[in-house]
Predict the 3D structure of the following.
Amino acid sequence: MAYSELIKSFERIRSYMREFYVYGFKSREEYDAKSVRSYDNERRRIESWLGGYMSFHQNASGKRVFLSVDSRRTPHNPLYKAFKAKSFTDKDITLHFYILDLLAEGGALTSKEIVDRIYDEYLSHFSGTFSFDESTVRKKLKEYEALGLLRSEKRGREVFYQRTDDMSMNLDSWCDALAFFSEENPLGVIGSFLLDKLEAPSDAFRFKHHYILHALDSDVLSELLQAINEKRAVTLAMRNLRSGYEYQRTVCPLKIYISTQTGRQYLLGYHYRGRHMAFYRLDTIKKVTIGNTEKQYDKYMVFQEKFDQHLWGVSAGPDHNLDHIVMTIRVGPGEDFIRQRLEREKRHGTVEFLDAHTCKFSADVYDASEMLPWLRTFIGRIVNLECSSKYVVETFNEDLQQMSALYGGDGDVV
Amino acid sequence: MLFSEIYGSYFRVVAAVLAEAAEGGLTDRRLTALVQEKAFAESALAIPASLKSGGWPLLDEKLHSVLHHKPTMPLTALQKRWLKALLSDPRIALFQPDTTGLEDVEPLYAQNTFVLFDQYADGDPYEDPNYAACFRLILNAIRDKRMLRLQFRGHTGSRHSFVCIPYQLEYSAKDDKFRLLATGKQRLYTVNLARIQSCELLGTYDPKAVTYPQRQLNELVLLLHDERNALERVLLHFSHLEKETLKLDNKLYQIKLRYDKDDETELLIRVLSFGPVLEVKAPDAFRKQLRDCIQAQIRSTLISTGI
């Protein structure tokens, strides 16, 4: 089949874009593609869509391709372009413009009338062999009805189709909101589709700490939101990103947890077989199959609310038991920002002043080891660290010794 | 269905071509230019050929549109449902869009479906009328190229007033805060919107006469020891910065990050959070700051354990 910059399925390109964007150190031979030709085609497509963000690194062991984006300087997420590259047939695009044109004045037509008028009013301009049968047109009309572009009305034995334009809607009044939410909303790609309809999009916003990779999981997220909205169970086809191991999980989907500090997105659901709450990273979900309505949905939602009260991140630890942690830190004169940091960054627990220069943070969480990265951000000020999980304190101290060795040892400490 | 050709670049470009053809005067050259401007890099190989060969019978041989109208497309149900869902986001109050037409639309999701579990707790007061009024005034000033007089509290509580040219609003999801980026007297100013007490629209300025100061970028060179899944954690965490990664051996990687000089303290804290899997190689001053923190902690640990 001849190469095209458009794609039929999103899954393969999703994996390549992720590799180029997150890692970017692999050579052509290191990708576990079915063939080097497959790699070449995917790389060429991504280059066609995102040429300005592609970079190359050449050394003795080969050429490495990577995507490098400073998202603070980019008003629009470039990865959305992948969602604008769906392939189609000649008939798809031609019918799209013919049907919407025939119905543009608000009239209603049957599929037969549409076919007749296509031949009389459009194809009569051409001497070619382009042709449509009524079933193709009818299929397209039903597809567009499902998308919400058309509505149908049965009159007697005939079905009439009409466009769904709403002249009262003023999309221009959404101009700034679209510029903002197309980047900030988890399904911002839909905002990007809407921005494409505007004559003069707003350029007023930029975004700091802006993670854009989630865009590639938009289709999965969209399916999950539908299931959550309809309170239905889902079967997830999953793939471990490191090992490539593929497996399935059937869960009741409840919430989407998003990290603003890594961009990772997780589904929190009730895992039927394991009979517990579990998190699933969206970038490991290949496919979502929506199942039956869950009669006990509200009960699981109550579990979620209780569960959330002691989650630091997205781990319930090995046994769903709580760890008690206490960190005491020193606050120097004029360092009120440390108290402010504790107040705004703590997700659970309490902060209390022991004296003018000492602050104590304490909390009960499912998995205190998840807190280690945050605890380390106070390195240099921690007076005391205690935790019911010995692993946490031991890891903290061992890491500190290793860091000391990395940065010049402790020769001048005492 | 999110992944559909109706949202695609090709459909959009062909609509633009047909709109221009409907006005008459579409030329080969203009056709190619439109495709190059609005589609992907290689689209110019496919779209003009399909339109001119009759593969997509939409233009006649004189490049006139065979359609009766300029192409338009209604909003899809997905688009309307997404817009309706935005109405439950507290930040929508800042924009006040016209919601007519969405009355009977089901939102795509409930706002509380999403849990931003590590977002800081002192986000901006979106429901404060004064905050929202300042936000909208600043947005107007940016759009209409007008100067502003701002009165705001500094981080120490002191009051400031100055005239500036506002040019962007920067949002951070982690902080849940907007900052105004403005220029004046050849300097770049960053002001937290929540600190602004009042603002006043002044006269217009000539955007061509303004030079926007650039942020100073520095390069951080890190060595990453791939233990405890550190490679993926680190690369995702810093993925919003321009970066380049090299594999040095099986478990060792070099990462170069380009960061704003003004954010150095924040970056230092973020590097610290990864512990010993991440080692700063350059710049030296950054490395020294880390060493000072670590040594202070070692001293503190020795004292608290009575060693």
